[in-house]
């Protein structure tokens, strides 16, 4: 029985009275606190130093609250308060919460891209959970890279865990228009470059685009990945779409605190939740939402940490069976995440595709997904469409193959101009993003709407970090003619709030000698989304000659974390994880003495 959508936590998330409590000596934290040795004496003494009474923590599940709050992350600026609600739930359930500050990955400020540091947060999460006296964890994130990073690290540590999504910000407003973060930024920036609006209008939009704490309120990467987390079964029901400033968000955080204690007593670990079936359902969800292309990389990486082999081919296979039902920008035309939430949220969305899901798998709150979505309803059929009136007949992403991307590339074709989905045109090649910015308006390039813009050296190693450069800007003269889309190809990513005919994640990347490195201005390129084809129309003999002339670019980093990143990062088609973190193998628990 589900509660109303504005109170989305299913009633059965309350602590059960019939779950056997673990004996103190069965808790993982017992080896730190419960023995008669010198080390346990020291641990208890230092806990007294923190001001805690013995009865507050001894014999109780210790819960790590991993918080990505910081002063420089507007998406997470409310998580300092939400952590208190999590702790409240933990205390009420008979647990002992300890808050850990962890790396904040701010999409809006961190350069060259927080994707460079996703694996750093994943490593930090794993090692904190392994090295401290904790029995379970509540993971607090939401801005694009924080969701996969926290879940990757927690999956590797494999303790009981619940994820608390940061939630979307309030819709933006400007002169009677509802603005979507990111999506309308791109739109009005192009209008400014085209001379349609001026500086005064842009200053007003600057103040009206992002009105509250929370991540992007479009179906960008943040909303896509928190929805994927809910579909995986690692949040309380309905959690992913609650607006960040809604009082329901506080209640959800408290419910997560209540739930994690019970998960510890049940010994339900992340490995019990993150199954192959769960990842298939997460892919189905992302595709049916018309979600971000970034989810492809992150879900493959998350699945790898859980020992599940998820590939690009799985995305393309599932995409052909899943309709897009979420009419949420940028893949949809009208609505934002608050509309999606009050239309039924993810439980309502999933209730429309039960035949496409694995309903008998467990979640953190229920023994089966079937129980979790039982009674869920949709309250607005234009926000979450019926199956017979989809936004698109097939999932919002397509995987491309061809001699330009032998290991694959992706395109969010529902956000592209339909006439460009089958297109052949001459390439205009830019060797890096700075060069592109400097020369895109050069009249000597003679760029027309039929050209194909190609950006290289922007992938995992070349970026570095695979920045969101993939929505290449159009030349000013074309914008002034009313052109708003062109075919663009790169080994970069793009923001989930972006739109356009952008082919992304070309693998292998040009920096390591992938075929993108061999393209020259004037070469003919064919894109055919229906045939899943991306082809460089140059004969093999000429490509072999170019390859013989190609020389590797200079190393991006000579020391530090960047050097480790450059040495260990994998390509986009395998998730951009670090090889030494992605490989299988056991890691022993520390000896606490």
Largest sheet: 8 strands, mixed
Strand proportion, as a percent range, falls in 5-15%
* Mean pLDDT over the residues: 95
The structural class is: alpha/beta
Give me the Rg, rounded.
Answer: 24 Å
Strand order of the largest sheet: 7-8-12-11-10-9-13-14
Number of helices: 22
Helix content: 25-40%
Query: Alpha-carbon distance between the termini?
Result: 47 Å
Q: Which blocks of ≥5 consecutive residues have pLDDT under 50?
A: 1-12
Q: Based on Cα principal axes, name the global outline.
A: globular
DSSP summary, beta strand count: 14
EC number: 4.2.1.9
InterPro entries: Dihydro-acid_dehy_C, DiOHA_6PGluconate_deHydtase_CS, ILV_EDD_C, ILV_EDD_N, IlvD/EDD_N, Sugar_Degrad_Dehydratases
Family: Belongs to the IlvD/Edd family.
Keywords: 2Fe-2S, Amino-acid biosynthesis, Branched-chain amino acid biosynthesis, Iron, Iron-sulfur, Lyase, Metal-binding
Give an overview of the whole structure.
It is globular and about 80 Å long. It is α/β, with parallel strands linked by helices and 593 residues long. The protein is built from 22 helices and 14 strands. 55% of the residues are buried. The strands form three sheets. The chain has an eight-stranded mixed β-sheet with strand order 7-8-12-11-10-9-13-14. The model is unreliable at 1-12 (pLDDT under 50). α5 (118-131) runs parallel beside α6 and α9 (221-232) packs antiparallel against α12 (276-289). It is an enzyme of class 4 (lyase). Keywords: 2Fe-2S, Amino-acid biosynthesis, Branched-chain amino acid biosynthesis, Iron, Iron-sulfur, Lyase, Metal-binding. Residues 60-371 form the Dihydroxy-acid/6-phosphogluconate dehydratase N-terminal domain.
